[in-house]
Design goal:
single chain; 330 residues; 3 domains; five-stranded parallel β-sheet
């Protein structure tokens, strides 16, 4: 795969193209957008493009067969480093960043360009961000730095000002289905379901993962009967399986709520036809406006989650929207 093969991100790739060419790309980038939409894939393929020895006349294309491309794919290229943030604690995070800056300053080992990829950069603490400032502003002539983040709001403004921002959009259902067809051997109907529930993110490459998380959502929503039950349901998000997969739970819950709204309208056009029975049962408990308000609030909750608001608190607020009018005068 090369940058030109990434599906659904034509605008972002077009912007990246503007900065590729010549002997070096000593720039600092910020790839931002929702998780699971191709930012990390783009960063790796940028590293391949800048170091590929067989990409011919197109600097955006990597051939995937040269020694450099193969090493980058296996994460063993000495001139490409990936940092995954957060690390264990503040002290070790700062130490890791300082060591990485020192590595950037060393001459090239064997490639044409050093690439540093930091994911998720929004988790960098203030000290680590400040340590990066000078390097972000003036990278060595042989270095390219890519910060990856779902949102740049938690990055210092001084850091933001030194970065070329490249926004990545959520993928269309068609783009998700194209990607899934290329990386899985699932049946067409399974891929279609994954494409709908993914909410524009490449999340589920295994039907087992999908079924397990769908089961969790159905069990959660089936338990909602009143205020006390909502508190109990929200408390489940203290547990690892819910907290650690909260992004995925949001996607599935939102898809479920949208189907409940469609069921309430009597359209008979459910997106996830295999969930007709639990959707109909759930839709029968609440009025249409309550379902719409809960869906809207859940969509807005993504940004709250990115700002470290607890999943328990988010779900409590969202689910109370379902019964707000019913209990408003009690």
């Amino acid at each position: 795969m090369s940058l030109l093969d990434i599906k659904g991100q034509e605008r972002a790739i077009t912007m990246i193209r503007k900065f590729i060419g010549g002997d070096a790309v000593n720039s600092s980038f910020l790839f931002f957008g929702s998780s699971g939409i191709g930012k990390h894939t783009a960063a790796l393929n940028l590293a391949k493009a800048l170091n590929c020895t067989g990409n011919g006349d197109d600097p955006c294309r990597s051939d995937d067969v040269c020694v450099s491309c193969k090493k980058i794919e296996k994460s063993i290229h000495p001139d490409v480093v990936e940092l995954t943030i957060p690390v264990a604690d503040d002290a070790s995070q700062m130490e890791t960043v300082v060591r990485t800056i020192e590595w950037l300053g060393l001459p090239l080992f064997e490639g044409r360009q050093k690439i540093l990829i930091i994911d998720d950069a929004s988790e960098l603490n203030i000290h680590a961000q400040n340590a990066l400032l000078k390097t972000l502003e003036e990278p060595p002539r042989w270095a390219t730095i890519v910060l990856i983040a779902s949102s740049y709001t938690r990055l210092l403004t001084t850091v933001q000002s030194r970065l070329i921002r490249v926004g990545f959009n959520r993928l269309s259902a068609e783009a998700v289905i194209q990607v899934l067809h290329s990386v899985t051997r699932l049946k067409d109907e399974e891929i279609e379901s994954l494409g709908l529930i993914s909410d524009g993110r490449i999340r589920y490459l295994s039907p087992d993962d999908l079924q397990e998380d769908v089961r969790r959502v159905i069990d959660l929503l089936a338990d909602i009967k009143g205020p006390a039950s909502i508190v109990r349901v929200a408390e489940r998000f203290k547990a690892g399986p819910y907290r650690e997969r909260f992004d995925r739970i949001i996607d599935i819950t939102l898809s479920f709520l949208i189907d409940a709204i469609l069921a309430k309208a009597g359209t008979g056009m459910l997106r996830n036809k295999g969930l007709s029975a639990p959707v109909q049962s759930f839709a029968g408990k609440f009025d249409r406006d309550a379902l719409i308000n809960a869906a809207l609030m859940l969509e807005e909750a993504r940004s709250a989650y990115e700002l470290n608001v607890s999943p328990q608190m988010i779900m409590e607020h969202v689910l109370f929207e379902l019964i707000h009018d019913e209990y408003a005068d009690s």
